[in-house]
Write a structure and sequence with these properties.
Blueprint lengths: L1 E6 L6 H12 L4 E7 L4 E6 L4 H10 L6
Antiparallel strand pairs: 1-3, 2-3
């Protein structure tokens, strides 16, 4: 299992965390998504993770990487 860590912008509340979690869990190979609202840290675990794809998806959801 792979683990990728991201620092993203614009995470302000639990609703933002839910949007990120739901948006990423729809991608194949993603097993879990954890978001720390206070820091904007997103931790993604799964198999066959593409960092570029994940950065693109986060940006598409409105949460670009710092």
């Amino acid at each position: 299992m792979q683990r990728e860590l991201f620092m993203v912008q614009k995470v302000k509340c639990d609703g933002c965390a839910t949007n990120i979690r739901e948006g990423l869990l729809n991608l194949p190979g993603i097993d879990s998504v954890e978001i720390e609202v206070s820091t904007g840290q997103v931790t993604i675990q799964g198999t066959q993770l593409s960092r570029e794809e994940l950065v693109g998806k986060l940006a598409a959801l409105g949460y670009p990487e710092v």
